[in-house]
Amino acid sequence: MTENLTGPTALTGREAQRAAVRRTAERRSLRTATWSMSAGTWQIGAWFWVIVLIIAGIIGYVEVRTDILDGSVIDGVVSGSAKFFLFVMGIIAPIASVAVHVAAGGTRRSFIRSTWCTAVILGLTFALVAAVLGYVEWLVFRAQGWSPELDRAQLYVDGGQVGTAFLVQAFFCSVYWLSGAAIGMGYYGFGVWRGTFAIPLLLVPVVLVELAFQSGYFGRPFAQAVGLADAQVLTAVVGGLVALAAAALTFHLVTRSVAIAPVTT
């Protein structure tokens, strides 16, 4: 004997079905937004890496010809530009995607999560390229009898420490991209003046990651200025995780209630 489902039982079944449809749609929109922002950044990022190689090649050639080569060239170019490139792309990509994402059926929650995922993907992939380029340069330097050491403070001594170099760049690139995304959404949601005044707070994760890794042009002098001891890998990773969590939380707080402009054609 089959009973007809009526009343609360039938209603519960329909609610469960709608919830399943919403979850499926949210997962799909999360994947789509993550792919869109990651691929869009890499479309420009590919040219960024070409330019990095050209600049590094020119600098290296000049230094070899003038006999002033005294350390890594690749690391100087990459450490000074990769994270800032992603910072700028972090400002641009999310605000260019959010309205289309919601208009296509996505939610703020899926958009926030997709931005988190994009930050991790970009951090890992850009760090991988940076570490591989640094390692190749290290091999060439050793083969030529040149000094492969870095000319600035880093958590790693040279490009031969490819694992540590990858770790440093991964945290820098992820945090900088997310912080840029928070600033972009701050301008999107708060307007020019309030968005500008919010920048110091939105840059706190950048300050944390610089202090944690004490690397590059700013990190080490900054850490010395506030009296921090030399960074170690373990403490740097812990600090990096705190900075990444702070960047993710900052972006969430800025984006969760932002008014989204309608898509116009």
UniProtKB/TrEMBL annotation:
**Residue spans crossing the bilayer:** 46-64, 84-104, 116-141, 161-179, 191-213, 233-254
Taxonomy, superkingdom: Bacteria
Keywords, A to Z?
Answer: Membrane, Transmembrane, Transmembrane helix
Protein name, please? ABC transporter permease
